[in-house]
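Re: your question about Transglycosylase SLT domain-containing protein

S., sorry for the slow reply, the queue was backed up all week. Below is exactly what I fed in.
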Amino acid sequence: MNADNAYGKGGDFALLLSAVIKKESSFGAGLPGSPSAGDGLMQVEPNTRNAYLSQFSAKFGHAYNHSSEQDQVYMGALILNEKMNRFGNIYNGLLHYNGGDYWYPGATDSYGRPILADQYANQVYAQYKSYGGRS
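Result:
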């Protein structure tokens, strides 16, 4: 099973996942020395990952393996798909994949730094479209 087939997106979801992976980890090249607490190719934060562990096991039939690049992509795909369904479309899904469920323009993190989810979503969406994304 691949992540695209798991969600019945007909190839388009794979393009979106590729755009997210490029932004988050440069296809893995950006992982060594990264200061982020994010996990792997999709840079899922530990608290977010932990919140989705039971859904991951139910969807993919096994426990999440932190060392598996396939599981890293599957976890990110699970979360992104949920955000897209919850917030209505790809762009809004990207906003909340990056900024969290309660993101809004002008939101800040716990250190008072702006959460630039809109810039993130614009960059990832443009990359997705450059790959031939349809939506």
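DSSP finds seven helices and no strands in the chain. The mean pLDDT is 90.

Happy to talk it through on Thursday.
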